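Structure (tokenized):
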């Protein structure tokens, strides 16, 4: 029996394929008779609007703004998802391109907890806001030449910086009870198939 509503997050270091896979993943589940709502990455949205760590004066200030935006945006998308599910009569899958706990990987020690408290949340509440977390391993360091900055104008990290971020992001989500790592593959179709299989196990 299908679950009536499932909310998952795709995360990972820069150039992990999560944004590229977001819509093909949604299309695959729509073909299977499931209503899908995708929540686009908030950091890219803000950065391309001129709101960045540099323009805001610090990484912590930017990430706190990002967390507020992400929290508000997810609430809107969830309300819309409930209405879509009610109208369609279909089970609902919400797929988020990055989640609230991602900010912790970028912030100085203690800043994430303080920002969460200012938003009326605990770190645990933000971590468990998703039914499952899928960490897509970055192409950085794979030796395949697949790491690139060209597909995202908001991305500025070197391969070394991306490897470090991938590790930090993995660590901040490690406490989630339904976290799964999807290993790097130069074949994007292989990564998509792994995600479809993992999410299918979760919602069936």
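Design, position by position:
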């Amino acid at each position: 029996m299908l679950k009536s509503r499932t909310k998952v997050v795709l995360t990972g270091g820069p150039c992990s394929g999560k944004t590229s896979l977001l819509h093909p993943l949604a299309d695959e589940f729509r073909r299977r008779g499931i209503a899908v709502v995708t929540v686009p990455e908030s950091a890219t949205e803000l950065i391309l609007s001129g709101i960045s760590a540099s323009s805001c004066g610090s990484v912590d200030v930017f990430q706190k703004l990002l967390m507020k935006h992400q929290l508000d945006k997810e609430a809107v998308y969830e309300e819309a998802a409930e209405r879509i599910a009610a109208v369609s009569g279909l089970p609902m899958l919400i797929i988020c391109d990055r989640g609230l706990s991602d900010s912790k990987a970028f912030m100085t020690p203690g800043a994430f907890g303080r920002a969460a408290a200012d938003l009326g949340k605990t770190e645990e509440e933000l971590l468990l806001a998703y039914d499952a977390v899928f960490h897509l391993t970055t192409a950085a360091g794979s030796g395949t030449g697949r790491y690139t900055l060209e597909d995202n104008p908001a991305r500025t990290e070197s391969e070394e910086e991306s490897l470090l971020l991938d590790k930090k992001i993995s660590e901040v989500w490690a406490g989630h009870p339904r976290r799964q790592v999807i290993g790097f593959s130069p074949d994007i179709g292989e990564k998509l198939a792994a995600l479809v299989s993992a999410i299918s196990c979760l919602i069936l």
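Reviewer-requested clarification: Residues 101 and 156 are 21 Å apart (CA to CA). Helices lie at 18-31, 42-47, 53-56, 59-88, 111-118, 123-127, 159-172, 188-203.
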